[in-house]
Amino acid sequence: MGVKQAPTVKGKAAAKGLKAAAAKNERKTEAETGKPLKKGAARFEQLSKSSDGKSAGAKQRD
Q: What digits encode the pLDDT tens for the residues 5-57?
């Protein structure tokens, strides 16, 4: 749910915090890789890689 669609003040604050945390995580990932994040499904895979180097999709198949 977006910040503007949240029905309560508490929900709006939570959505705003989540959006800020996601942006911070993306900036961190871009700084680590040294290049901008990809777009679309490739972006999800790039962000979901964990310390062991496996993506979320690869872990589900295992």
A: 878 888 888 888 888 988 888 888 788 878 777 777 777 777 776 556 666 66
Instruction: Report which of 27, 45, 24, 25 is spatially closest to residue 36, judged by C-alpha positions.
Output: 27
The first and second tokens of residue 25, run together, are 């995580």
Looking up tokens 């993506």 gives 55
- Report DSSP state, residue 7: S
- Rounded Cα distance, 28 and 22, in Å: 10
Q: Look-up: residue for tokens 């290049």?
A: 35
**Entry pTM:** 0.55
